[in-house]
Amino acid sequence: MPDESTPVPGREPEPSSEARSEQEPQPGPQEGEQGKIHVDADWKAEAKAEKDRLARETQENADAAGPGAAGGRAAGGGGPGGLPAPSFAGLVQTLATQAAIFLSNERDPQTGRPLRNLDLAKHNIDLLAVLEDKTRGNLADEEKRLLDRYLYELRMAYVGAAS
After folding, report:
1. How many independent structural domains does the chain possess?
2. Banded pLDDT at 71 (limits 50, 70, 90)
3. From residue 14, how far is each of 7, 8, 19, 41 by CA, in Å?
4. Minimal CA–CA distance to 114: which of 155, 157, 161, 76?
C-alpha cells in the first residue's frame, strides 16, 4: 500500500495544509459565530504594529512629563506582567501601604482575623525612616516631600493606634 508521499499515477498529489490555506480563501465569521476570533495571515504584523504604537505612545507621554517624572525608571520600562516601572515613589508607597494596613481596623477577608499588627506597622515605618536617613541629600524635592508626608502621617496614625 503506497504511503501519502508516494505519487499515484493518474492522481494529482494533494497540496500540503500550508499550501491549501494559501490557495483557499478563509471564510469570515458566519452568522452566529460573532464571538469567535478571525485570524488572518497578517495577525502577527498587526500585533507587532499595535505593540510598537503603544510603546511609542508610552515613551511620548513619559517624554512630555519631563525628566524624573518616572521616578528613576529603570531602563527597559515596566516589569513583568505589566507592572509599573520600579521607582523610589513606588517603594515608599509600598512600605507606607503595608504600614497603613497594619494600623487599620480591617479584617482579613479570608480568615476574618484583624489585620492590625502594631509591631509590623512600626517595622514598616522604621524601614521608611531608614530609607529617609540613607537617601538624605540625594532625593529630588518631590521625592523628599513624599517621604516626609508619609512618615509624618504614619507616625501620627501609629501614636493614635497605640494609645
Report:
1. 1
2. very low
3. 10, 11, 9, 22
4. 161
Give the whole-angstrom CA distance, residue 116 versus residue 99. Answer: 10
pTM over 0.70: no
Specify whether the CB–CB gap between 131 and 147 falls below 8 A. Answer: yes
Triad 46, 50, 51: Cα angle to 5°? 115
| Contact assessment for residue 150 and residue 92, using Cβ atoms and an 8 Å cutoff | yes
In a domain, 137, yes or no: yes
Please determine, for residue 69, whether its predicted confidence score (pLDDT) is greater than 60.
no
The DSSP bridge partners found for residue 145 are: none
- Residue 70 binned pLDDT confidence (cut-offs 50, 70, 90): very low
Which helix (H) or strand (E) covers residue 34, if one does?
A: none
How many residues are listed for the chain in this entry?
163
In a domain, 57, yes or no: no
CA 109 to the chain's CA centroid: 24
Half-sphere exposure of 70 (CA within 13 A, CB side): 18
What is the per-residue pLDDT for 115? 93
The range of the structural domain enclosing residue 133 comes to 88-162
